Amino acid sequence: MSENSESKPYINFLQAESKHKGIFKWILSTDHKRIGIMYMTGMMAFLLVGITLGFLMKLEMLTPGKTIMDAQTYNAFFTLHGVIMIFLFIIPGLPAVFGNFMLPLQIGARDVAFPRLNLLSWWLYVVGGIFAIASLFLQGGPIDTGWTFYVPYSLRTGTNVSLPLFAAFILGFSSILTGINFVTTVHRLRAPGMTFFKMPLFVWAIYSTAWIQVIATPVVGITIILVIVERAFSLGIFDPALGGDPLLFQHLFWIYSHPAVYIMILPAMGAVSEIIPTFAKRTIFGYKAIAFSSLAIAFIGYFVWAHHMFTTGISDTSRFIFSLLTFLVAIPSGVKVFNWVATLYKGSITPGAPLLFVMMFIFLFSIGGLTGLVLGSLATNVHVHDTYFVVAHFHYVMFGGTVMIFFAALHYWLPKMFGRMYNEKVAKWSIALIFIGFNMLYFTMFILGYEGQPRRYWDYLPQFQTLQIISTVGSWILISGILLMFGNLHRSIKRGAKAEANPWGGKTLEWTIPSPPPVHNFDEIPVITHGPYNYGEEEAK
Amino acid sequence: MANEHSEKNHSVGYGTYVLIWLVLVGLTVTTVSISGINLGNIALAVALLIAAVKSAFVINIFMHIKFEEKIFKVFIAIALMTLLSVFVLTAFDVFFR
Amino acid sequence: MSDTVIKNHTENLHEEHVHRDDTGAKMGMWLFLFTELLLFGGLFLLYMAYRLQYYHEFHIAARELNVGIGTFNTIILLTSSMTMALSIAAMQRSRKGLSLFLLASTKILALGFLVNKYFEWSAKFEHGFFPGSDVLIDKPRGEYLFYGMYYAMTGLHALHVIAGMTILVFMFVFITRNSITPTNYVKLENSGLYWHLVDLIWIFLFPLFYLMR
Question: With b meaning 16 or more CB within 10 Å and e meaning fewer, what string describes A456-494?
Fold first, then answer.
């Protein structure tokens, strides 16, 4: 199909007309591919806002005391940086963009199970985003509680708490609807012959993620509603002055928010499992192990939440149990890493930009994962709790993990989504800058945290300044790398070389159709007879 | 397709629903009467057990789960086990604090 | 099943899909019900923790609730669940009029539940048993919390009753306009599932609040 797709007069989904005109062709479209791209557009905008806030925070840290902003502004900034990055960028993250775009393609379907619900999810995402941003400009001022909204401070502060909380609730609802959609899609719309064990691993990851979205998100929904109601009517449920227990807020909050980190990382791991076989030209090593480890991470990850609360005064019994469960998550994560590395072994590797991002991911994520063990042990946790060590750890895991793979996926699937190639040389330069900047910015934070710099502080002791300066300079290098990358991608979408249907030699179904895909994806629904990563070795047998 | 659909859908008779309703009302009366007796510590357990039995009737008959595909039962098991595990794990904190 | 889906697909290459998958629709609804379950689950979790912490205060505070109204409301909801199930059964047997009648009965029973709830809450308010009231502030913290939990949980449940009623109104219109028919009634089934969930939640709320004597 790929050879003659250029010669045919062919309408792809980007050009297709519908009954709507102008921008409504997009914002009222139920096409999963367009919705994916709309999510991408929104998320890129919020990512840039988040990056700007992070940049300004690091600039403030250049000198002790006031550099460019006062303490209250700094409080608002770290809260907004967290809220925007987490709720508006990284939680919708890969599922909303690449899940939407690629999941139906990879299972040989024409759309998701509930296309209109899918559009509603996007609209809720937009409304939630607008509420979050609007809360900044309303009376009371921007929220200053930190993205965790801990009570009792979030009950007492005079800043705008209820509106951003409501925004988070709406965003959660959007996430739930996406999850419902994807679980049903995987169960009901797989192409004939595609059994669960013939699904691509990205689909497995999205499926596991969708379950967490469905089962975990409502818990934070009710928690958020209770805080809003508590602020209005003093039910007393979270208010210690009225008999409530703030620790229960933390329990409920983390019952969602810990599984939420697996909502963030699992789809990224799925994308890694796509990119590695394609760029190593080898069947993935340990397909079932990777598939089951996704489910295992989703499952165990649900039951480790209280490791965020080791120093808050929860019972010793629960500290012991949650520490144990936390260590268990390392097992399926390790299974994945070893299988990826084993896939690369003796492969015929093409070091394209997506693969370089993946290598960077494995390096950064391993550091993030191993320092996670430091935090998961009760004794060492006490020393580094709520310090920069934690900040460094989750940036290594979330940024070094999820966001790097988000970038990798942008490069990997860009030819499919837009039918254009990016500039490989510029991509590699941006990767180098990102790698150097990232490690300067965040590795210094491990040291700072270990030496006792608490997180979320506006001021610091003069002895920390050298490391703070290295870290701030790192942020500049990192941001230049990211901007270079975005510039490259943007230019590619506009003017890049035309991409073939299958530029990487991928074996999953999305590569069997033209780039960009037609509106209805498949002229004929394929019948699946073999596994997803069918490279030479198996044919040779 | 429509025919195929209604054929495979098991339809329950009116009588069954009325019967289940009678059982549910009966169980409600029972649980109210029992609550008048001082059962001490097991009172809550008894009340929850009766509520669970009532739920089982509602889910299986009113909500048709008895007649649905197996995957629906697996789903419900996943959701309930998750909820139960969350309760148990939180109890490890609040019981032993 | 999948064969039919594909056939429908190839006939309809445009983005407006008309393919029908009743099992898929019900699956989606069940997944949504799980989110509702977990939403209330958070509240039940809080209830468990506070009942444990304030055992005696909860028992004292619960004596103020009226077991009679609670029992009556339980029976109303159970009956409405039955009429809902019967309405679907009538639709399956092509008895549209009966189905509409039963659906209307469900709504009237739901309304009855809310009216009862209204009188129950107003009586509490008159006696000053509401969050932040002077009466409650002077009570021990456990009793204050009992009412916090009571209003949060029954209030959220009442909101679900209202949402359920709204959905049922739509279903009523759909039936009269023949967009729900004896061969295509999955919308009605899904509304029924939602309504039964509202009933299920109440089955647990009732003993936890009213039957603690």
Answer: eebebeeebeebbeebbbbbebbbebbebbbebbeebee
